[in-house]
Amino acid sequence: MDNKRPDEKARESLRQTADKIHSVLDKRKTVRLLACLAGVCILLAALVIVLFSVKVKSIEISGDLSVYNESEIIEASGIGPGDSIFKKTSFGIERAIRRNLPITSEVNVSKKIFDGRITIEIEFTEYEFFIEYGGKFYGVDGELNVLDTRESKSEYFALGGRFLVIDSVQQPNIGQRLIFTKTVEETDTEGVTVHEIKKPDYYDYVTVFLEYLKNSNYYDLTDAVILDSKFNITVIYDSKYKIVFGGYGDLDIKFRVLDEIFYEGTLSQIEKGVIDLTDPSAAVARFDETLDFSEYLE
């Protein structure tokens, strides 16, 4: 039995009617909202399609073009004319160039989207050294990180590189540090063959010596560094001098003695000469017109 008063029934009826009206309005709002969202999505999709249809019309390279030409830099960037301008982000292009051309010191990429134009500003560090492996030549820095590969010594010499003669390295991989093989030395003593496996740190002398050389007065005019033995290090300097350091110990003393020899000027007028610093307390400097450096310079 319904004991509600007439005024209560009227209020409840009005409340139910209001709820139905609100429900209808909420549904209409929801429909309108969904329609708006769908419209926005369609517009965004259309915009994305339009933007991704924008092709790269030109790539402009500025900066240092002495190490790599425009086509080599564009190839390293991973994007080219005809590609969607959104194939790679500006950061992605910069990262690709640094990965493919490790000698890159600075690179900045900007896009003019509606012009279809990409601008790449690039600078490279100077070549420090290069090695030979398998008939090809590889640029390396002072820490022996592999920078690139070229077909001849002359290309690296033209770019300021210094030839390193180093034995026992594995196949160089661009962007990675040189890996030395475990060399095996055999010594026949009374019919017994002794095998000696070199540990990787055996070759630390290479980077130690190169660091000394880079901080010396002789780095700029160094042509080649012969480092195939830690006890017989030799530098070809100024295409005139063979400087024999011997072992890599006492390098501070050896470089000071070398300074004194050049300061005296005894060798300044000769065509070719040998400076032997193996024992710095008994250093020897002498003329030797028979020296032939073509193996290292040509």
Structural account:
It is a single chain. With 298 residues, this protein is an alpha/beta fold. 34% of the residues lie in helices and 26% in strands. Strands 6-5-4-7-10-11-12-13-14 form a nine-stranded mixed beta sheet. The chain has a three-stranded mixed beta sheet with strand order 1-3-2. A hairpin with a 2-residue loop joins strand 4 (129-133) and strand 5 (136-140). The longest helix has 47 residues, at 6-52.
β content, as a range? Answer: 25-35%
Structural class: alpha/beta
What order do the helices and strands follow? HEHHEEEEEHEEEHEEEHEEH
Average of pLDDT = 83
Helix proportion of residues, in percent?
25-40%
Shape descriptor: elongated
- The total count of strands amounts to 14
The number of distinct helices, counting runs of at least 4 residues, comes to 7
Could you tell me the radius of gyration in angstroms? 36 Å
Described by strand count, sense and barrel closure, the largest sheet is:
9 strands, mixed
